[in-house]
Amino acid sequence: MTGPPGAAAPGPSAAPPATGPAHRAVPPRRALLAGAAGNFVEWYEFGVYGCFATVIAERFFTPAAAGPDPAAPLLAAYASFAVAFFFRPAGALLFGRLADRAGRRPALVLVIALMTLATTLIGLLPDRATAGAAAPWLLVLLRAVQGLCAGGEFGGAVALMTEHAPPGRRGRYGAWQSFTVALGLLAGAGAAALTASLLSPAALSGWGWRIPFLLALPLGLTALGLRTALPGPRTRTSAPDPASAPDPASAPGIGTVRAVVLGVGRIMGWSAAGYTFLVVLPSYLQSTLGASFREALIATTLANLGFAASILPAGRLSDRVGRRPVMLAGALAVALCALPFLRLLRDPDAAATAKAAALLAAGATVGLLAGPGPAMLAEMFPSSVRCTGLGLAYALANAVFSGCAGLIVTALTAATGDPDVPAYYAGGLCALSALALAGLRGDDHRGPLR
Question: What integer is the mean pLDDT of 410-435?
């Protein structure tokens, strides 16, 4: 990553990648829309699953099957939630190599098609009362398919958006990946809240929870149409320029492994805080603080609104001042404020407006990490391994620090009786992540992608 310190990054789409197939130029906004659409569908489903974790625990995991502990069904539901994350690294490798070798479009089309199919099938899946012991295993199988798809989604989508970003706008374009995550989570929470408000508790638990999952079908088909319309790779008609021959240092190897490990360190706080405040929060509020289902959904919606509102400004700011100061500010804010935030939520004397403001602020601090994060990861890897490398770093961080968030928080809270466990988890990992972020170069946002 070289170039004059003050120069804007030239658009990587001006020339084909040094390795792999040549790619037709894609208009920046078209690439942005096609990349972001799949992210929206993916995170819509994850938001719905997080909101309905307690209902899914009741329908698919019973105390008799999971043990005498009353928290066991919820733990089992979170275990099926975590399964998808642990399949993400495999998906990042599988679909990432496909995208790096055959082009971005084939991988992105395949992952959104499979994700849409798996999510729709969850909405049609018979519960334990109908299918018996097979029901939870079928759910876990579909979650595994979703995990594989999600692992390939991030790398391909971020590569597509950042590689075709106009000069000096990689942070802004990459931030759309995170922004559509926020929109997906908000849409999932909104669909869950609307379903809960229109149906009785018995109807919601019996069949109403399926409706938001089935809505993924038209959403996924729309995203699939956008991606199939992308131009595919073209065949070279002449020998490549020797000056563009592959750099041996850019091939998959020890350098890529080091970059993946460093990338995990830089985004583990983002992963932990994002899932603690934006996905796990509804079940935490219900099981620990005794909040109603609707109150928990309102709280989660506010946190996600704060998250969504800060992402794009954070991405734009990182194009001007660099990824490091913006992401460091977010990591340190979570580390310092997570504990006061949870204690404010538990305070019965605190005003409702103060709690609402705290929820908005908590989401906004995660947005400071999520806005510049995709571009930061894209800048760490050369084009020949970009989808694989950044996808694997993101998948590993999410598998360990996001997929396990519900399990860890629920289990430790039940074992210790300490309601501050979520704050220790998110704040502690953000503190560690800040150490890794401190090593970012200040000018990486200015140079071209490798």
Answer: 88
Query: Comparing C-alpha atoms, which of 50, 13, 34, 168 is closest to residue 106?
Result: 34
Categorise residue 3: left if φ over 0, alpha if ψ from -120 to 50, beta otherwise.
left
How much is the pLDDT for 232? 63
Helix, strand, coil tally for the chain in percent (to 5): 75, 0, 20
Q: Rounded to whole angstroms, how far apart are CA atoms 112 and 223?
A: 7
Number of Cβ within a 10 Å radius of residue 299? 24
Positive/negative CA dihedral, 351, 333, 81, 401: negative
When mean pLDDT is compared over 247-261, 363-377, 416-430, the highest value belongs to: 363-377
Report d(CA 274, CA 278) in Å as an integer: 6
d(CA 99, CA 113): 15
Q: What are residue 234's DSSP bridge partners?
A: 22
| β-sheet bridge partners, residue 233 | 23
Q: How far apart are CA 396 and CA 149, in angstroms?
A: 14
pLDDT in tens, 429-438: 999 999 999 9
Tell me the per-residue pLDDT of 104-141, one tens digit each, with 9 for 90 and over: 888 889 999 998 999 899 889 898 888 888 888 888 88
Q: Distance between CA 370 and CA 364 in Å, rounded?
A: 10
Q: Which pair of structure tokens corresponds to residue 91?
A: 């998906």
Rg (C-alpha) for the chain, rounded Å, is 21
Q: Which of 33, 27, 22 is nearest to 11 (CA)?
A: 27
